[in-house]
Amino acid sequence: MSGAKQIVAKPMIVGQPALIVVDIQKGSFVPRPPSSRLEFMPDAVERYTRARTVVDAAREAGIPIIFVQEAHRRTMVDFGRELDGSESVHCLEGQSGTDFAVEELGMLEDDYRITKRRYSVFFGTDMEILLKGLGVQTVIMVGGFTDVCVHYSFVDGHQMDYYCRVVEDCVSGSSYRAHDAALEAMEYLQAGARRSAQDMVDAFAAIRQQA
Amino acid sequence: MSGAKQIVAKPMIVGQPALIVVDIQKGSFVPRPPSSRLEFMPDAVERYTRARTVVDAAREAGIPIIFVQEAHRRTMVDFGRELDGSESVHCLEGQSGTDFAVEELGMLEDDYRITKRRYSVFFGTDMEILLKGLGVQTVIMVGGFTDVCVHYSFVDGHQMDYYCRVVEDCVSGSSYRAHDAALEAMEYLQAGARRSAQDMVDAFAAIRQQA
Amino acid sequence: MSGAKQIVAKPMIVGQPALIVVDIQKGSFVPRPPSSRLEFMPDAVERYTRARTVVDAAREAGIPIIFVQEAHRRTMVDFGRELDGSESVHCLEGQSGTDFAVEELGMLEDDYRITKRRYSVFFGTDMEILLKGLGVQTVIMVGGFTDVCVHYSFVDGHQMDYYCRVVEDCVSGSSYRAHDAALEAMEYLQAGARRSAQDMVDAFAAIRQQA
Amino acid sequence: MSGAKQIVAKPMIVGQPALIVVDIQKGSFVPRPPSSRLEFMPDAVERYTRARTVVDAAREAGIPIIFVQEAHRRTMVDFGRELDGSESVHCLEGQSGTDFAVEELGMLEDDYRITKRRYSVFFGTDMEILLKGLGVQTVIMVGGFTDVCVHYSFVDGHQMDYYCRVVEDCVSGSSYRAHDAALEAMEYLQAGARRSAQDMVDAFAAIRQQA
């Protein structure tokens, strides 16, 4: 129990996994140049496109996929403090960029969909109801921003006792610097949390073969 | 509503403030050398000691102070996934380092005290009941780790619509690098969130004079 | 502070009110005869129809109206323990009875809508985000069942410090007996909570004139 | 899936059980005559005394016991809307009646204890952290009031997917009428939820012998 004890990572997938696609929406596939507020990452679209490979592998292995959309009411009543910082008005209902990326991600009619108003996918949503219903123990995240919605969803999942994993080449941040720091923070919480798309696709293929 | 719109920081204190002292416990005043797991910050004790000046200024101004303690049951039943990463067993009930830092922080009998099991001061606690009862709109945080309990408490407060501030020279991180990144992340969420102890002491003194 | 102290009801509306329409969906307007599981109330449709008068009065007074729908995913993954008791499968997504009662209640495009998976309108939804955004202090409920979704939404609202009111002739129960008991329970929690549609319509008209 | 389908009760105990003792505190053993506000039940003390037999049987079977105490801060800041109805000021910290009933219930040093500010044992507490840590699936409740803290804790447990049971001769209500209605409401939610102390003691004895 000493602080010097070796850290041993848990298995990548413990029990029933679920793939959570965090805020990869129509607008995520429109390249965004750096602004005075947000630097973004130049390879963001590439990263979200790569997430599709993980989605497809999950689908083939029968692993539940939960697509999460951030959307704000057009009256802007539900932004809370979200406009006090670096983010400007975003994800209004009815804007084309807010829609689920149905074609881009190959979403099907019966896929699980959750709409959220805040950063964490657990905050003010039925995510935990759904995860309990599915018997999920491990949540695997792709999407964006690495340092905001992904990071804070990871933290909530972590505090709710889920094994949490982040596919580091399928997430994109508000800046490279913030992206890197968030990945380090997630790895701090759960050793072995950072994984590659290839690792995850391989693991899903192995699950598929066992089934 | 363009992304290029200038960010204008809100006032430092909006409405009723409360000072939240996050996990400054007896053990926080024992210097900890870097371990193989955690680097710590060499001036941590200095930073927690400085927090006392903010506590005292809040008290003089009649601003509510909420002291939060992390404590885990001795059976270790409530660690959840907290031992899957960089942290080893910590803050067991009954260990001397887990106690509230009564003398070090000048705590009084009737100060508000909250015990938590997770990182966020809101998770599994009566913090929101208390903040609502006090009519608080702005929460000001000191304590540690900057990048864990402070950061994730800030995020929850932010998502619950509180104006959140962090006193950057009264918080200490699991490493300098993580500390800096967390402060940047908080500033990203709410512009002007990062404040100095001197700023806060001055603001509290001004409130005191108005009262 | 003695137990014998007189109970003095608070004003019917304190601060900003909102009207919450609990689970009055398309199917609510289809008369349901008693079954071996549920007795229902023979005047249920009449009661839900009367709720329309309160909705209209709220709209004229500019009081926010929040329409809540219970809906379960077709895979039935999110029923939790809801089928362990008197209720059978209900409110599946895609069933006509599950739809919002747009015409029956005169719902408009921009009305607030919330979908829930559990009994309480606060459980796993963005209700509190919305109420905070609207600055609501008093929640007024119509809908059904009085003893299930209305009662347990009232209890959550109560525990979250909202002034809660129930329009007793615009709610309908799983049985008369259960309906009556639930109304008594709500009145126990907040004296003066039980109100008539007429009281509410009059109060809303008064607010309208002040505006 | 028709409403006429027979209701089949689930087993009394599914998976890992825990016994939750709701608000049986020192003051619960002081007989309270009816007041103008609350009728109480004349056999309340007898009922809480009987709860001890269930506590003892749980202990002998190695079933976790969680003692819950309602306590309000002396500044009364955390009563929320609890004084708007039939209840007057109650359970202040530091009052003798607020203490855990250590001797009366045979509590041990290492028993799980939770302090709450609201009716539900889940609201603003670490109850779910603890239940998850213990791997609990079935929660069994004794205590009071049947129609307030027990009922609303049961409802939250129900909505969180726990199998919920109430020991009907070990709970006491704010009145007989309200007690009966609450028991019916709990049975509505989960068939077979109402059980006797004898049933529970027998079941615990059987678990003990299996161990």
Characterise the protein shown here:
Four copies of one chain form a homotetramer. The first copy, chain A, has 211 residues and is of the alpha/beta class. The first copy, chain A, has helices at 44-60, 102-105, 127-134, 146-159, 176-189, 197-210; strands at residues 16-22, 65-70, 112-116, 136-144, 163-172, 194-195. Chain A is built from six helices and six strands. The first copy, chain A, has a six-stranded parallel β-sheet with strand order 3-2-1-4-5-6. In chain A, helix 4 (146-159) packs parallel to helix 5. The radius of gyration of chain A is 17 Å and the shape is globular. Chains in contact: A-B, A-C, A-D, B-C, B-D, C-D. The B-D interface holds B 73-75, 77-80, 110, 112, 116-118, 124-130, 132-134 and D 73-75, 77-80, 110, 112, 116-118, 124-130, 132-134.
Describe the secondary structure blueprint for this structure:
Four copies of one chain form a homotetramer.
Chain A: E1 16-22, H1 44-60, E2 65-70, H2 102-105, E3 112-116, H3 127-134, E4 136-144, H4 146-159, E5 163-172, H5 176-189, E6 194-195, H6 197-210
Parallel strand pairs in A: 1-2, 1-4, 2-3, 4-5, 5-6
Helix pairs in contact in A: 1-6, 4-5
Task: Quickly describe the structure.
Four copies of one chain form a homotetramer. The first copy, chain A, is an alpha/beta fold.
Sheet/helix structural class of chain A:
alpha/beta
Helical fraction of chain A equals 25-40%
Taken together, the total number of domains of chain A comes to 1
Total helices of chain A: the number is: 6
Whole-number average pLDDT of chain A? 95
**Low confidence ranges of chain A:** none
Based on the coordinates given, report the CATH architecture of chain A. 3-Layer(aba) Sandwich
- In the CATH scheme, the class of chain A would be Alpha Beta
Strand content of chain A: 15-25%
- Strand count, sense and closure of the main sheet of chain A? 6 strands, parallel
The overall strand count of chain A is 6
The SSE order of chain A reads EHEHEHEHEHEH
